Amino acid sequence: MEEGGATKKFLYVNRRAPYGSIYALESLEVVLIGAAFEQDVSLAFIDDGVYQLKKGQSTDGIGMKNFSPTYNALGDYDINKIYVDKDSLEERGLTLDDLMNLTWEDETDNYAEKPSISLVNSEELAALMEQQDVVLSF
Amino acid sequence: MTLHTVNKSPFEANSLETCLRLARSGHNVLLFEDGVYGASKGTRFEALITEAMQKQNCKIHVLLPDFEARGMSTDNIISGIETVDYAGFVDLVTKNERVQSWL
């Protein structure tokens, strides 16, 4: 934070599918609000949370807002550490190709577009969680 | 005849499993809201769904608007599952004697 505030490591843990409950949308709102405070932010998608990043969402038929395009904006807020649990994807018959292609621009590398999503195994996810100052669960 | 409705993801709750355990021959099952994830091929619940259709003679339906909202591809629906729209949902409700909701 400005004015000498300390930077902390925040991890947002997303474990719910979109639309069936309000958790996914609320998490995204909080992440975007939090982005204004210039903290070190990571997002994890585990269990049904991986469905939030599914490509091709189209909510015309259910009268709800399709908020999936908003995930594309995360890179512009310097949120580029998005971790997807590989086991959760696999047991749902999904692969990285089924997810939206989220990217960010690396200003230290001539604004090269780089992928934001990393697939991680349980070990890596556990290690990631242990590094955090604050873990927020949705 | 009974219509069973399941609106929770099979990964989040055991509603689908219990529903299929207790549904009797010829019963209808409708997957809607987060329940639609059970209709996709390649999940660890595919065998359970296929068995319910083949061995228990259950008819399984999925509400298409909910399925499409979640970005799931209709090419990837387990074969034998029928898609319905909202009017089809209403038809299922009216043609069955009762509706059992697995919340």
Please explain how this structure is put together.
The complex is a heterodimer of chains A (138) and B (103). Chain A has three helices and seven strands, in the order E-H-E-E-H-E-E-E-H-E. Chain A is an alpha/beta fold. Chain A has one domain (9-137): DsrEFH-like (Hypothetical Protein Ychn, Chain: A, 3-Layer(aba) Sandwich), CATH 3.40.1260. Chain A has a five-stranded parallel beta sheet. Chain A has a two-stranded antiparallel sheet with strand order 4-5. In chain A, strand 1, helix 1 (23-35) and strand 2 (40-45) form a beta-alpha-beta unit. Chain A is globular. By secondary structure, chain B is an alpha/beta fold. Chain B contains four helices and five strands, in the order βαβαβαβαβ. A five-stranded parallel beta sheet of chain B has the order 4-3-2-1-5. Chain A binds chain B through residues 16-21, 47-48, 51, 54-62, 64, 66, 68, 91-94, and chain B through 7-9, 11-12, 33-34, 37, 40-44, 46, 64-66, 68-73, 76, 85.
Q: Write down how many β-strands of chain B occur, each being a DSSP E stretch of 2 or more residues.
A: 5
Strand order of the largest sheet of chain B: 4-3-2-1-5
Question: How far from one another are the termini of chain A?
Answer: 24 Å
Oligomer: heterodimer
Largest sheet of chain B: 5 strands, parallel
Weakly predicted, low-confidence segments of chain A: none
CATH class of chain A: Alpha Beta
| CATH architecture call of chain B | 3-Layer(aba) Sandwich
What's the structural blueprint in terms of helices and strands?
The complex is a heterodimer of chains A (138) and B (103).
Chain A: E1 9-14, H1 23-35, E2 40-45, E3 82-85, H2 86-91, E4 103-106, E5 112-115, E6 117-120, H3 122-130, E7 134-137
Chain B: E1 2-6, H1 15-22, E2 28-31, H2 46-54, E3 59-63, H3 64-69, E4 82-84, H4 86-95, E5 98-102
